[in-house]
Amino acid sequence: MVAVARARCLPPILGPVRSARSATAIRFARPPLSCSASAIAVVASMDAPPQGYRTNVGICLADPSLTKVFSASRIDIPGAWQMPQGGIDAGEEPRAAAVRELREETGVTSAEIVAEAPNWLTYDFPADVKDKLNARWGTNWKGQAQKWFLFRFTGKDDEINLNGDGSERPEFSQWTWMTPQQVIEKAVEFKQPVYEEALKHFAPYLQSDPTASS
């Protein structure tokens, strides 16, 4: 099964954004409506992670009503928004890795797993991203093979802390709740097909259609 990313017009994000430094909601300012250039990005779906790909978990954290999804802006790449994710440690089960990564990146412990995507979703790194990440990790990965989990947040917004649990360096500068479609549109282009596939798996549990326009 494959999914192809196409050029999209990015609508403005509605709703409050919260910074890492403060629980105070701020408005997210972004440039006017724009379209990205056409690009082909293919994501593979398979029963087991293939050789040459870093095993990874992806976390779709939905709000208590299961209508909006957590997305955060990366510190190192301003304007790049994503759902939490992270590598699976040696000998670690994907489910345990997802719980750990959620806590490390967002500080969230008040959450329950609602669903797990049945297959691994695999994507390749663009050349520049591949070189940068492999230099940092001392590896030669082609890309990432991700196991995705849908969590329902059962706490209050002030529990979310982008400094995480203090065990890792913070990755995000601000966050907000988005519709599933907004999450896809705000992601970097090479991750969009994976986000589309993951959110299709989770659509029966969410109270909004991830393929619908926001």
TrEMBL record:
Keywords: Hydrolase, Magnesium, Manganese, Metal-binding. Its cofactor is Mn(2+). It holds the Pfam family NUDIX. One of its GO terms (biological process) is ribose phosphate metabolic process. PANTHER family: NUDIX HYDROLASE 26, CHLOROPLASTIC (PTHR11839:SF22), UDP/ADP-SUGAR PYROPHOSPHATASE (PTHR11839). One of its GO terms (molecular function) is bis(5'-adenosyl)-pentaphosphatase activity. It comes from Zizania palustris (Northern wild rice). InterPro entries: NUDIX_hydrolase_CS (IPR020084), NUDIX_hydrolase_dom (IPR000086), RppH (IPR022927). One of its GO terms (cellular component) is chloroplast. This is Nudix hydrolase domain-containing protein. Belongs to the Nudix hydrolase family. Residues 52-200 form the Nudix hydrolase domain.
